[in-house]
Amino acid sequence: MKIMLSALVALTLVGDLWAADADAAAVGREVHAKNQEAIVTIRLVVKSTMTLGGSARESESKIATVGTVIDPSGLTVVSLATMDPSVFARMVLRSMRQGISADSEFKDVRIVLADNTELPATIVLRDRDLDVAFVRPVEKPARALAAIDLTKAREPRLLDEIISLNRLGTVANRAVTVSLHRIDALIERPRPFYLPSPGGYSSGGSPVFGMDGAPIGIILIRSAPPDGETGMGSTPWSLGSLPVVPVIVPAADLIEVAKQALEAGR
What we know:
With 266 residues, the chain is of the alpha+beta class. It has four helices and 13 strands. The chain has two domains: 27-35 and 150-252, Thrombin, subunit H; 38-146 and 257-265, Beta Barrel (Thrombin, subunit H). A seven-stranded antiparallel sheet has the order 9-8-7-10-11-13-12. It has a six-stranded antiparallel beta barrel with strand order 1-2-3-6-5-4.
């Protein structure tokens, strides 16, 4: 009798877990369908300059990264670290020796929409502390663009299940992925951000949603210069001895900076 009861309890628990997974998958599909067109590709031609003493060395590269449109005018949030090679280079070089500097010049910026339409764009604001850049079309789009309204965001709790979207590169025909995570940590200082569990295809510039479909924030890159400590606890992200980790920057923080970006764009 006890064996049968234990088996029945086990089957009930399995059934509950299966139902929860099915519910999460249904919500993920809904979030994907509703928001996928707001996930765009940002293409750039970047000229990088490294200066040592009085000698400068230049190189040019083509970069494609992910952006999230947050306003129908086309204002798009991008992770600065994923589009500007000098972000990490400055930190690494600063730890090595004096007299070395790195800078980037953006020669061509384009927003590539879901239907592969390319909009010439410009970078209207950069914030290295947040690791965020705002990109906007040079000319007003012919139609309002699909956008994610960050003003409808909510704050997550520890271990809440969350959903992230990401657009892949040309090797996967720029498909939009959907991934399930949880909130592993809530960081309060020096500024608030949330640490998502690893996994999926999330990258800098990807939006994150709660299980009610409301936006939570955007995944950006948190980094710190080498200070004698290596790694970031059990977090596997690192660039040499430079600890880096993808974090979710709350929508509330981005909204304030976005207001400045909208004014700068005008």
